[in-house]
């Protein structure tokens, strides 16, 4: 996995597709003029006959993927996460309703493309795909997990959405576990006062926040949920019962995303004070993802402060 | 050809009976497309009982899914559907839903209804057939109103770019859409010219002339190029009182009266 660790998230996705293409002859890849930018070109170089560039036409890409899947193939369709949303109604009607094994890979997700600004920064994609029946939604934390998630997605029966960053990532999962299981959450750090729950690239920030809290004598667990849907309820309920409060952190709007998924689950498991951290509007143009995390308050210090505040008043 | 016309006539009669039981069916659109469907099913190009794994089977994608009742009517005429079942169409428990769903019989890519999607799905199907080395073809039926959708032209451009000669597109040009005459709602312009500009082999035929339709299908199949047949049709065709009208739905009494008057030689 050390090789993958050195790749960017989108490169890891491209490499996984190329490797998957070696293993499975039914895998085909579609892009919307995004072979270069999503790194799907790694697949195209090895399997040119199974690679289709449909032009800047996300809607057609989604419907064509559905047609390929209905004929027994396993299509992976890649474009910027922000523009995958343009095909949402087609995804609903031609993929989700038929429960077809189409895999949508949205790259440049969250704040990973600071240069292009809010038009390119997908902060709503988890919500959009989570709401669709039959869909599995995965948001890997780093390149290692992106590679594993793409490989594992081939085993899922219905449609899958995988949320991938561009270049920014802090390796956090490479040695955390051996096998990636779709639908499983992972204990990144054990703790008993508060649990910080994350998905996607917020994992390393949550771990840093836990260390800040430890210095203040607060024991924080960090739970990582690369699969947002279905959510690992067993892991969630185990910690929800034992800690005083929960903090969810996501590189996404707080409405309808990962925090909402946790809150929905908590409504059944039993109430616990919960702070949902994320974005409340659209993004901004910036020089680096780090600037954006700072600007939108998604920093280890802020996460630690919210956790501390929540347990002090609960 | 006479026998095909007779089959189509009987299918029209059964459509009217369905309309008597279910006011939700789109009778006008079903009547405009039924001769095209008869030409495809009646010549064995597509079959009601094709197995998915058949090596060189052809596929039918009815992208204007609201006309699915024309397929139900034909299926009963060809003996694949009990006439009694036609009367249940649109009911909760019936598999004959008012747009093709995933459990709808006799349709290959089943979930049309949202316009334009079937066009893209037909492209994916054709790509898959080519990848698998299958000799099968995809017959894609679209409406003319449906061609307003951006995805339609995105998909046609993909057909042209990849030279997918195994898709034969048939436009049921009945000249009407929800808010009125198609050309008035949104300009379609020189449709044949638009397809030609993309590199399609284009034929324009009378969509109710069985012989002309079959000849056009043969020419499309032999063209060796991405192909479109623009079939000029009339809404409500073949039923006195409906022909040429923009009416999509009719009351029970009127439907039964029209069925009684529809006599097939």
Question: SSE order of chain B in H/E notation?
Answer: HHEHHHEHEEEHHEHEH
CATH architecture of the largest domain in chain A: 3-Layer(aba) Sandwich
The backbone outline of chain B, from C-alpha atoms, is globular
Radius of gyration of chain A: 19 Å
CATH architecture call of chain B: 3-Layer(aba) Sandwich
What does the secondary structure layout of this molecule look like, with pairings?
The complex is a heterodimer of chains A (314) and B (265).
Chain A: H1 2-5, H2 9-23, E1 27-31, H3 41-46, E2 51-53, H4 58-70, E3 74-80, H5 81-84, H6 88-96, E4 103-107, H7 125-130, E5 136-138, H8 143-153, E6 160-163, E7 186-189, E8 194-198, H9 203-215, E9 220-224, E10 227-229, H10 233-242, E11 245-253, H11 258-269, E12 274-279, H12 289-295, H13 300-313
Parallel strand pairs in A: 1-2, 1-3, 3-4, 4-6, 5-6, 8-9, 8-11, 11-12
Antiparallel strand pairs in A: 5-10, 7-9
Chain B: H1 2-21, H2 27-42, E1 59-62, H3 68-77, H4 83-86, H5 117-131, E2 138-143, H6 150-161, E3 167-173, E4 176-177, E5 180-181, H7 182-185, H8 191-198, E6 201-206, H9 210-222, E7 227-232, H10 252-261
Helix pairs in contact in B: 1-2, 1-3, 1-10, 2-3, 5-6
